[in-house]
Structure formats: structure tokens, C-alpha cells
Fold these 2 entries.
Entry 1:
Amino acid sequence: MIKQDRKTIGKTNVISVYFDAEFFFERGLHSFQRYDFPKALKYFRKSVDLDPHHSKYLVHLAAVYTELGNYEESNRLLTFIVNSIDSCFTDCYYYMANNYAHLGNFDQAERYALLYIQESHDGIYVEEAEELLDFICFELDREPRELDQENQLIVQHEKARIALEQGKFVEATRLLKEMVEEHPHFLAARNNLALSYYYLGKYDEAMGVIEEILERDQANLHALCNLAVFLYHKEKQEEAKQLLAGLKKVQPFHPEHQYKLATTLGILGEDQRAFELFSSLSKRGLMEDSSLYHYMAVASYNIGREAKALEYWTKLKQLNPSCEIAEYYLNILEDKELIQTTERLPYHYQLPFDVQLKKMDWFVNGRIPKNLMQDPLIRSSLLWSLRYGDRDTKLQVLQSFELLADEEVEEALRQFILEKEEEDYIKKVAIFVLRQIGAKTPYTANLCGHLIEIDQQTIEERFPHWMENWQKVSNCLRKYMEGQYDLLEHQEAQTIWSSFLEQIYPDLPQIRKAEGWAAAIEYYMLVRKKKKVSKIEIAERYDISVQTLSKNLDLLKQAFS
């Protein structure tokens, strides 16, 4: 072995090579052209991970899924492209038509083939789309349809439904309201509008839409299922039980209705009946949707049939080798200690939110990176968890919302702070986030059991606007703590300052130097959190003397003793 001179160790020049999304795309394209689809899948997925909103990478990933027979995943990506990235990428409609044809869903295949021809009169696939339509009409033994108003309405409804799935509840609400106004008898849009209101926390509006549907069709199964979920989450147990008793007796014929009823009953704890309905779907040969394998597995597990659960998750893993959901639950079944403490699994075709938070080094400096938060699954999980998560989860979600400063988040936060049942502290953190993302005042919040309006004068923890020196301390805290603490610690420091002023009122101190008080508050907060810190270190950072810090710290301690 050649020995390296010790003096040269650590001095060699190592040049790190950065592999970007385009590098992996080119490798994937090479494998795709050689018909090595598993390897192409690996490379295309890597390029999408590095650049998740590039249509070229996404459409090639969709193409690989098609070649591997995973048509549902392919269509999910294609729908995401035309609805969220590039509405002019109309070739996606033709690809979707082919996928639906492979799945045997000729009505949907016809719809998207017609849509492609309408949107791309001179498109490169027009001839192929017409041949596909001829084949579909031969299979269905009828004349071809036109893309009439009904079909256009369905396509518009599909866009709204996708927005709903992606957690874009404000956008979905806008689209669905327009559809309901223009087509009042289109009850599917009304049902999704009710869900959209519900996810935004507008419970009364959601219930109002459900009542309108049931007035028009008292046996509308989607409306009854949605109503049962709404009642359950609002803890109206008696009403929910009465409705559930009726739903358990329903024997739907249409697969879509059967699917809706099964998932609803599963969510509400009626696992045995859910299992029966899912089993019926599988016997009818309707297992093309990979999520159905997951629901079958969950229902099996929840009624104590672990061997069946193992069978269905294994099938899901075989159908979609990259499915993290199947892998996660298969690992649960292998962990004997964990399985003994896991009584019941949730009916959500996604990883549990706490598991998602721990994956992929999501948290960077206490926050989820913005590129990850744009993922539809993560985004909808965050918005859902703000409503129905536990206390710690809600605080984590709020902390991450600083990076999602858009209309959806602002609307969700404004609705959240109106909730009577929600803890005041968490609502105050939400108000703090609204301020951080630049949401315009006033904010209307339900605090201490009363509706109050928070305007620009009261936003700084109820500081009077004219007391500029008090305000300077608050601003100073934000300036010196920026980049060193997370959102909750920022909020805690501001709360200490406002609580101190409330405690000593009307004997308020003179503020000669804001930095002296800000330093004392930061130090006091760290001591309360039992974190090691020296007065010298804090004083130097704020450019004050240790004596000034100690004097103000003593006043803080006296007020809170």
C-alpha cells in the first residue's frame, strides 16, 4: 500500500460535482429509449424530486408509469401538469385518453380524446386521437359523441376537484360557486363545494350547501356521507349515529357510490361494513385504483384480519414499487411491539402527518422548506392538520405557514382564529403568522369567548400605537432574534413583553434604550426554557452593558413572581 505523506493529508483538492435535474433527466431518457423502464423511472423520479414543477420532467415520468401499467399515477401527474403548471400543454389530454382506454374506462377516454381534438386542432396527435375515438365507439357499439356542454362541465368540475385534492380550497370554492350558479342542478359540484367550505372551516356554509342538496334529492348518497362526516367532526354524536345507522343499511349499485360509502363508514369507525363494501368492489373486478388496495388493507387490519391486510399492502407494493404508503404499513405489520400498541389505522391514502414531518429532513431551522410545502399532498395535509391535528401538530403547521404566504393560507388562518373551541394561545400564534405574512388588518378573532377586531393599533399584542418606545422594544426583539429562533420563540418573547406591561400597569417603565429591554426579555425567555446562556453573550449581541440587562431582568422577575 502506498503511504501518503501526513503533510499532504487534507490538502488535496477535491472538486465536488453537483448533479442537477437535467443530468438525471438525460440519464432517464437514455434508459427510456432502451426500454429499460425501471431504470428510467428511477432517474425521472430523481429529476422531478429536484425540480417538481418542470412539465418536461413530469410528463416523461408519467410516460414511464404508463409503460409500467400504472395508469392512475400517470393520469395524476398529467392532470397536475394541465391544472397547476401549464394549461396549454394539451398533449396531456391525449395521453390521459390513452391511459383511460387501457383501464377500460372508455367514457373518460372518449371525453379526453374529444377535449384534445377541441383544444389542439392542429396537434401532432389529432390523427391518433381520431383513431382512438373510432376504437372506443367500436367497443361501445355506438356513434361518437360531441364535446357538448355536459362534457365541458365535467371537465370544469374535474379542475375544481383537483384543486380540492391539492388543498387549494379558496380556488376550488371559487370554481365550484361559479358552477353552482350557472348549473344549479349539478349536485356533484354542490357536494364538492360543501367539502371545500368545510376544509376552510366554514361549517355553517358547508351545512347550508348540504341542506340545499338534500332538499333537491333527499337520498343523495354523497351529501348524506358528507353530512355524517361533518356531524362527527363537530361532535354531534347522536345525530351522526342516527345517520350512520341508516347508511350502514344502504346497498349502492354504482361503484362510485359504493366507494364513497365504504370510505365514509371506514372513517367513522364502521370497519366491518366498510370491509364488506370494499370486498364487494374487489369481487366486481374494480381494483384498478391502487388506493382501493390500501383501503382494503386498513379495513382488514381494523377488524383484526392482519393476514389479509398483509396481502393487500403487498399487492399495492407490487403494483406500485415506489409506494411509500404500502412500505410504511408493511413495516408496521413486521414490528410486533408496534402492532400491539396500534389499535386502529386511519382511512387516508397518505402517510400519517407526523411521519411526513419526520421524512426527508423536512424541517430546516424549524420550518418546512417552501418547495416541499408546494407539494399537493403536503399542502392539503398541513391545512387539514390545522383543523384536526393535536396541539403540537397545529403549532408546527402554523410555524411552517410563514413560508406559504398565499391566499389559501391567509383565508385558512382568518377562519381558524374565529373558532370558539380553539385554544386562545394557538389562535394568538395564528394572528402572529397573519401579521408575519403581511395579511391586511383588521383580523376578527374569537378570544376569551368574545369576538374582537384586531386592527393596526392593536396588532402588536395590544400595544397602543402612540407609545412609540414600547413599540420599539417589540421591533427590537424581532430584529435581534431574526434567524436565531423559530416562530414560537418569537411569539413567546412578544408575549412576555406584553404580559409584563399588563402586570405592572399603570406603573409603566420609561424606555430609554429599547435594546436593554429586548435583551432582558430574550434572556428571560431562554432561562424559562432552561437553555444555557450567559448574560455577557446576550449583552454583547445587543450592545448594552451587563448591568443594564441585569437591572431590567430583575424588574421582569418581580412582575412575574
Entry 2:
Amino acid sequence: MYSRTILNSASAIALTTCALSPGMVLAQEVEPSAADDTIGIHDIVVTAEKRVGTVQTTPIAISAISGDTLEQNGVDSLTDISSIAPNVSFGQQVDQTIIVIRGVSSRDTTSIGDPAVSVSIDGVQLQRSSGLNASMFDLERVEVLRGPQGTLAGRNSTGGAINIITAKPTDEFSGSISAEVGSYKTFNTSGHVNVPINDWLKARVAFQTRNHDGYRNNAPGVDGDDDNTEAMRLTLALDPTDRLSGILTAEYIRSSNHGPAYYSQAVERYTAENVPPGLLVGDVILRQPDIDESRFPIPRGQQWDSEIKSVRGSLAYDFDVATLTYVGGWRAMDVDRHTWHGGAFGTNRQNFTYVHQDRLDSWTHELRLSGDANKPFFWQLGGYYFKENNPTPVSDLADYPLSEGLFGEQVLVFGFGRDRIVAKSKAAFGQVSYEVLPGLKVEAGARYTEDSKISQGADTSISDFGGYLASPCGIRGTPACTYTVTPVDLSGKWSKTTYHVALNWQSSPNNLHYVKFDTGYKAGGFGGTGLDGQQILLRPETIRAVEIGSKNRFLDGRLQVNLAAFYYDYSDQHINQFITTPTGAPASIRVNAGKSEYKGVEMDLKFQPTPEDTLDLFVGYTDAVFKEFLVGVGGQHRRQAAAEGNLDALGNWDLSGRSPPQSPKWQIIAGYGRDWSLFGGTLNTRVQMHYESKSYLNFENYDSDKRPAYTKTDLLVTYTSPDETWELQGYVRNIENSLIITNSQDATSGAFNSYRYQFAPPRTYGARLTVNF
């Protein structure tokens, strides 16, 4: 399978490259000439391989977005990157961000889950998705690495990695301040000041505030998806000697808002007149309803607050023959969530509330010794340690049965009570490359990882949930509720050795071709309480990936064509499943899928036909499918499986042939920008479009879980003054006002009796003024 898939893809890439190459490959520097640096596509320095390189000389499917490009495109949150970064998309799980690269994601955003896409800031792991958007200010660049990074960035990176690199202090005094106003009462500010203190010490202070009203009319509650965030960062650069250098960064982020907008609509059920064979009268019709975009009702009382403090840094010493580098950091995050769970309005489920509290901190340490990157033989060796501690997390499903909102007397419906949750990861890694012939390099690397997790406490649930819905207990003189308490004392250890092997050929200064094999691994975990009442212990995820690519510059560096083809053999994915327990209470569990297969091709093109015009085009095709996937089911899911003829003798639903969540077949990103001379300055106009074909947000692939194909177009107009001391930008994002579904919950749950969805931002517009000094 590997050889056939890759051979076909390799042939296509080779033919395309050869068709473009004759008479066009130039043996010259990739960078534009010093005489006219406006001609040609500029390279961006990257450190994806933990050494300095450029996008075009790094044999990885990587997108690097410079700080200037991020600013010009109005990117001030991680989710905005999907407008310009190829094969990247985002989903939501209530107030958590789900990152998807090439259709690979993890939808377990709980306190015991791990991401499938590794996110780091200045080399320090960000384990939790809360607060990711708030760090997106004053950046040097963002690197998006597609595919598993099993050796150098191996922690849970089965889908890929996103590296956020903040701006560092420079040798000159400088600064900027920006103010932005826009729709939904947007008022954002940002800025920085760079101060060289002396010859060996420099400082940079940056800040950002973001404020806007909610995007959705949630009456009687306050409009959701609002923002009220403040962030500040202090960075020191130290160069006390020619051999020793270091960076120290402290960051503080505070956010307070009314939480996500959750659309809920009472389910439609089959009647005797329309029930299909195999299902029952009263079963849910699993088709997507017509959504009333004018109103997203949420009870009053929803609130989401977080506070993040972090310190991180790096230190490097040059021994001539080798360089020793340390990267590490500490991050503490306090989160308090009191968010609606989406029960249908007008029922005794409308005040179900998710009450969540985290007080967690994490430490990251990495020590790396590397050779001289300019020598034919280059090597790296390192060790890695990560620990996250979450003492006494609270994660409850509560109800306010006699209230008009999410306040007053509370009844605990289901409690995920833990005395502590601890996750640790240790790894040792190494990678070497050798130039066997001029331009031809072989690479090999390995990483050994040991992970461990502890989860101690108890699950508490109402013993007769159906009875509770019929007649509330434990409130205002009613009888006390009867609870079932299940002690939980879980621990798990997992280990894995992952590999990297590659052959890279720099056939000319402007042409790089590569083929590589990588394996990836994501630690196992705890899946919750299954239908049989037993705790689920998840096996690790593993992925084997083959990729072939070609990176090329033509026409004096004005045309860039990067091509890639990939094949993934993915096993034991952690899949979220929403179930109704034997007591009738709702619960979210995780299970291991058997095997899935991903294969695809990508073309990433940039063209600068004139110094004033720039064209970007990315086209990606991904075919992702579960090859083996059995899941135990009950209730309507079981009847659905039997009606399809996919229920085995043990009561498992065979989901082979379904698509993994959020894995569209097609993704297209196109952009066109032009510079115009105006009043001695420059007016830049840019239009950019993001298209995704149909995908599903749950593994069952019901129509009710479908995310229809959509197109999202942004328009940006930026004027820069003649002396570049100020800049004014106007923008409209999502011109079509597309309703883009980012989350869909299981409609068959009798606990909610509703179709439940979340959405990306609607059309927004505004203007930003930046003053530089």
C-alpha cells in the first residue's frame, strides 16, 4: 500500500516539477538581489528542525507566516491562521479550541485529554487549548508543520505542530501602538516598546487588549462568543559573552467573558407515519435542522474566566565544536467555567450547566546538544521532560431546575470529582544528517518517550436520572437525591520509540526534493466510565507516515511551487463518544478507533508577476477513512447499526468506511494582493478566500453532524505612510457571512433532547490605526 500510493504521488510531483523546470531553474541566490529587493519572494527563517533554515531549504511540509504577514492579514488569534495557513482548520468543544491539520485532530479537550497537534510558544509546550488565542500578539512568526513530528517535536504530535515565536528585543530603540474599532463594539489595542539597555542586555515590552460584544443574540442571556482579554509580555535578551546568549520571557493573560454561543433546537422525532424500518417511534431524526440564525437562546448566568501566568526562556552556549541549548518554562492556568450545556428550551433540560474549574500548572524542560550545521555531518542529541499537575479539578454537570437561569439552588447531576490529575512525559531523542554527495543528504532520527498519568477521585451521578427529569429531587423540600458513587483510582504508563528517516536532494539552489518516513505517538489515557460501568483505559495512538515533496523557485525567484504527497497509517485514535449511562445520565467517554487511512496531495503556490502583485494559491486533497472501527453502542445508535446491517454479535457497531471528524476532502486557499502608489505612500489591497468541502464533526457521520461545504472571503485595505511611521487598515472578514459549524453534539442524547451546534464568527468589519516610532 505504501509503495503504490507514494509511487503514484511521486510520479505526479516529478512530472509537474520537470514540466516547469526546463529553462527556468536558475543557479543563483534565492533571495532577491540587493539592487531591487522588491522583486522575488522573500524567504522566512524557520527553526522547525531546531536549527536555522528557511522554508524552502527545510524538507518538511511547513508554512511559515512572518509577523508582518500576520499583521497585514489581521491575524490576532490562532483560529485566524486558517485563513492563510494550508490544510489547517479549527473546531470547538464548548470553549476549547480544537486544532486540525490534514484532517488529524483530538476532540478530547477535558482535563485528562491530550492534543493531537503539538502547540508551543518559544519552544515551550502549551498542553491546554484555553488561552491559545490570547498569546497571538507581537510575533516574529508562526510555523505550521504538517504531519507527525516523531523525533524533534515528538510530544503528542500525531497531526503536526504549531510553533509560535514571539518577537525578540533588537539593538535599536523602537516601538508601536495600535488601536482598532469595528463591528460588535470591537475595541482592541496593542503595542510594544523595544529598549537596548546596554551592549549585552535588551528589553521588549508588549501588550494587547481585545474587547467585543457577543456575535450571537442569546436572549434572554447575554450575547455569547464575546471577548474581554488583557495580555502583557516582557522579554529580555542577554548576550554577556560571544559564546553565551539567552532569552527570558514573562507573560500574563487575563480573560473574562460570557462564554460560547451554543445553538440549541428541540429534536424532531419519528412518528408512526414516517419511522423507517429498524427504528422506533420516538427515535430522533438525525438530519440537520433549519437553523434560525436570528436567535441563539441561552439562559442567563453563563460566565467564563481565566488567568494565565507563564515564565519561559532559553540559554545557549557555543563550544565551537558543539552548541548546548536549554529551553524551558513554567505555566500556571486558572480556569472557571459556568457554561450552558445545550438542553432544549421549554423543557426540564434547559438549565443543564457545565461547571468546570482547573488550577493547573505545567513545567517543560529540554536540553539539547548539537553540532555545526554548516558541516556535511550534522547531529543533535537531547532530553525532554514535561509535567502537568491539576490538583482538585472540578468538572460537574449541574441543574438549576427552579430557576430562570444558571443560578440559584443547584442540583448535581453528574460529578467528575478528582483529588488530583498528574501527567508526566520524559523523552530522549537524536537526529543526524550526512551529505553523501553534493546536495544529497540522508537523515535519520529516533525518540524514546515514556508517559505516565494519574487520575484519582470519584464519579458521582444521580442514580435514577429518568426519575429526576420527571420530578426534581434535592431542592426546596423535595426528597434528597440518591447518588451512585464510583471510586476512581487510575494510573497508566506508556512508552514508544518513534523514528524519522529521510532522503533530501538539493538539486540546485532553488530546488529541493525529499522523501521521508516518520512515526508518531500520542500517549494513552483514561476514557471514562463505559456502558458496562467499567473504567476505560485508552491505548496510545500511533501513526506511520510517508511523505514525498518538492520545493521549487522559478522565474528569478518570482514563482514558488511546493508540492507534497502523503500517506498515513493511523491506529487507535482517541475518539469522543457521548453516551447515556445505564442510570440514564449523560456522559462523555473516549474510545480507541481501530485503524484509519489518510492519503492526500498538496500544492502550495506563490507568484509575484510584478513587484506590486502577489498571488497565493493552495489546493489540498485528503482522503481519510476509518478502515477498522468497532464501538459498543446502545439505544438508538444500536438500532441504527442493526438497520444498516453493521451490528456484530457482540453489540459493536462497525463504522468502517466512515470519515474521521473534520476531515474534508478538499481545501483551497487563494489570495491576491496589490500595492498601489498613493500620496507618496503605499496602498495595499488584498482579498483572500478559504474553501472547505463537506465534512462531519462526529465519527458516526450523521447528517445532523455534517459541516456543509463553505467559502469564507476576507478583504483588507492597508495604507502605509511615505515614511512608514503610521499605517491605517480597513477590513471585512467573512464577507459571505457564512454560517460555519465548528461543533456538533450527539442529538440522540435523551438528557438534552436537542440538536446542538457552535459556529465560527459571522461577518465582521473594522479599521485599525498603527503608529510606529
